[in-house]
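Forwarding these from the shared drive since the link keeps breaking.
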Amino acid sequence: MEVLTAKTMGPSKNERPMYDLVVHNAVLLTVDEKDHVIANGAIAIHDGLIVAVGYSRDILSRHDFREVIDAGGGILHPGFIDAHVHISQYTSRSVLACMDGTSVTMGDWKAALTPDDEHASAALAAVDYLRSGYTGFVDPGTIFSPDAVAPVADEFGIRIWLTDPYVADAGTELQKHFPELVSESFLALWPKNRDEAFRRLGSQLFRNKDRNSLVRAFVGLYGEGTDSQALFRAAFDLAREHGVQMQEHLGYAPLLYRQREYALGASMMQHMSEEGLLGSHVTFVHMNAVHPGDVQILKARDVGIVWCPYGQLQMLGRGGAEGRMVELHRASVKVGIASDIPRAVHFGGLGTLATVTAAATGLAASGPEILRMRTIGSAATVGAASELGSLEVGKRADFVVRRPDVSENLGLDPALEFAVIADAGTIDSVFVDGKCVLKHGEVLKADRPAVIARARRSVRGLAARLHLA
């Protein structure tokens, strides 16, 4: 372990500055450039920012604090960020079996969502996120009523990134290739034509005016062949103009993706690079068919990639997939890990699922690699790596404190132990913007039984409206 001294910002060292909070006597997993592990470390917080990182003895001797927390030797790491989740569908994760043998599709379910249903789904997810060590999540533009979901950020103390709902000018392509996901009622809520799609672009960017808000916006397209090149270019230019990320689904179904490449006569990444449609402000979600030559293109263009392990495992069993997420990460491509729709695993198990999926592609991922992809990697895919994702001076104070007295804490590979193996029961506290939002495993700003009851009423109401058992 490299010897570090406390790094500070603010008043000169001849003074004893008063800061808001210090958490000391912790094992820090910094996830900074060198992935430092600092035994008996501390971080100091002021006005929601990290103002010092280092050894406890250094920080405690040089500063005064309004609040002091002893972590008791527990692990302290940056909060996880779910880089891609269809948040309005969180409460639908066990509904598929009810649709078997009926004419009802997930499109019918999504079309039946009311603003209250979307709020109930996001609220339930927020509780589960915080209890699993997450401090934020990214919805890719599949919220019909963003105004119904945005309040969840302040209600629970969690970060939310969102974008314009269902931006596409060729929505019928989804029906052609993924009929199980759509319905006429669902597509009726999409833009009717290209002009309407253009009008939706950027409709949520007003949320970025308040730099201290827990809700941030980016530019999003639904993707998977539902957008024209003209619409993609408009989104690309708008995101660059506003200094935000642009995201879209791409390469979920490898065989369909390869058909598009065959028609182009080149790999998709090569084509987009030649067209000037790749850049550091672009993120693609899924990319289950990354060809060997794509790795250098993605690296050179600094494109972000969101890895959805469960979806990739599905596609590995259907043919045509080339899972290269670990290879991309080791090539310094921005890779974040996401749940997509957590039908088969809880948020807390996403590290294990990613590890298993990586092994299935033939290139195992280490604990520190999974930790980076769940934290600063995910932040990077939504353009937030300069503010979040690591324990560094000047960044927002979003972090997790784990209990020291748990079986996972053997002290040999803490990144593996707590970013892959450990479950929600190991979490003592979660802080967002330097404020404690979860303590001793309970969300402070939520009545958890009430949140669960509201979600159950929402799901049962939806099922009744769709005549599902």
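-- next protein --
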Amino acid sequence: MVIDELFGLLPRPAQPREQGTAPEWGTVTSKLGGPLPTDYMQFVDHYGSGTINGFLTVLNPFSANPHVNLLDQVFAQLSALRELRSSYPEDFPFPLFFEPGGLLPWAVSNEGDVFCWSTVGASGLWEVVTVPRRDSPEHFKMSMSQFLARGLTGQLKTSALPPYFASGIGSFEPHPA
């Protein structure tokens, strides 16, 4: 599995919170109009809701917290990205979800950075686009779990991840109930 590399670097919580069932995943994909990447769904199933290295929160469609719920945050983040694209079209040439190949947010940082998929092609092949708060967007030809694994090991250079994120072995702090 693509996510196995990440499993070796980011210990899973003993009791993950807010995981989904197969029927619930079906509802989520129906609301979004298609399947999500398998490694993302596996991440949510194994980790639940929480924060990686005190910095990055993967949005979870099953979270009771609207600030980290994928379905709530997709629209909030897309609204902010739409404004960014309108203000700086030369620096932000990306289409946005629900446009063909549009960016779909999957994570946020505690500094306001947004991590998206470029929804070009089949969901298992979606690549990562970061939208750092203080820099230009960056495109990475890798999956979400590859991006996180390489970010944790320091193999990935991006202004969207602070130097301390590259800890080698990450920590996952579940969100409180």
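The radius of gyration is 15 Å. The helical segments are 4-7, 22-32, 38-47, 70-87, 144-153.

- D.
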